[in-house]
Amino acid sequence: MWIFRNQKTIAVITVVLIVLSVFGATKIKVNNLLLDDLSNRVKIKQDFNFFDKEYSGVRPLELQIKITATDKNIWDYSIIKQLNSLDEFIKKEYTAGFLYSPSQLIKSVYKAIDDNAKNVLPAEEDFNDIVKELKANKKNKDIKRIISTDLKSARISAKIQDKGSMLVKEHNEHLKKYLSENINPKEIEVTVTGAAHLVDLNNDYMVTNMMQGFGSSIFVIALLTYFLHRSWRMVFVFIIPNVIPLLIMAGVMGFAGIELKSSTSLVFSIAFGVATDDTIHFISRLKIEMGYGKSLMYAFKRTYFETGKPILLTTFILMGGFISLMISDFQSTFYFGFLICITIIIAVIADIFLLPVLLLLSLAGRKRTSNASYYGFIVANPLKFPKRNK
Residue 70 in contact with residue 186, Cβ under 8 Å? Predict the structure, then answer.
């Protein structure tokens, strides 16, 4: 009875939570670190962070170099000059602690030959002498690591700090701009590649794919609801209480700084499936009770007694299962259990408090079997529910 007398309050609270959740959801970042799933308490994560901070970094940065000019190869002086400028840009932009490339190889040999030489690209005459020696040792494993046998392709290998895919994407955009302005595309083609880059692409693909799957699941459930009830109003009544928990979960992620990646994006589809379960039971039971010819209010009363208790019990059982995931040292597993528990709690609250209000609004214009003036007034005026005299 409290729910039906405070429908406006419930509606206002719901709107406020939606607004706050949408604002929090805008703060969600799509990011990925190499060992982000491991807790900082794990020894291997501590060692990983130590080498990442104190040494040259642990995240690999790989660039493929392809010589597009037919009359030139990797040992052409103009090509090496452009690659040398690219090396300097990478060191500055990515703060690379280690870098291995054809131009770095030339400078290392030049410095080894001349003790007084600085770590700079030699003049063309000295460069040609060094290239002759390198060509004579083309089977050297260090040369074969970065230069192909046909001298038409090479690689730049660097190590940078693992600052996350979001920051690396910004650096990659700056790299594209630099390449378009300083590298001749008729001579050199540069492509970002490597294991870390593929992991970032895979994470972005999975996040996008999960969101598309989530949207598809909402569409399918909305379609099935329409065919079951033949009413678009019932579709909205069914969808709204189940989408709100997901919005609140997204808001919690935004405010708590939980980043969106392949592991956390999976939560939305699973949580939506879990949340809809209670709504299906509630609406189905209400429909059965009304089919017996009972009044709407009596049907709600029987639905609360017959379905409300099992819904609460199921909620506690599900929470007991997912809470066990929160003891894991893997952050993705911890967040998975944490976020689903939040969604389950909010979903059952929405089904108990918000769903009856939406059902009253949806069914307000229909005929009722009860002739009681009090309940008739409730149905006709769902937002003006008076306090009954004792």
Answer: no
**pLDDT tens sequence across 282-328:** 888 888 888 887 777 888 888 888 888 888 888 888 888 888 888 88
Using an 8 Å Cβ cutoff, are 176 and 168 in contact?
Answer: no
**pLDDT at residue 366 in the model:** 52
CA max distance for the chain: 106
Collect contacts of 85-88 with beta carbons under 8 A, ≥24 apart: 85/182, 86/156, 86/178, 86/179, 86/182, 86/183, 86/190, 87/156
Smallest Cα–Cα separation from 362: which of 354, 370, 371?
Answer: 354
Written as one letter, the residue type at 21 is S
> pTM value?
0.72
CA 252, chain centre distance (Å): 14
For residue 383, pLDDT over 70 is answered with: no
Average pLDDT, the chain: 82
List of domains in the chain: 2-30+207-380 (1.20.1640.10), 55-193 (3.30.70)
Task: Report pLDDT digits (tens) over 160-217.
Answer: 988 888 889 999 999 999 999 999 888 999 999 988 888 888 888 877 887 787 788 8
CA 248 to chain centre: 16
Phi, psi of 372 (to 5 degrees): -65, 130
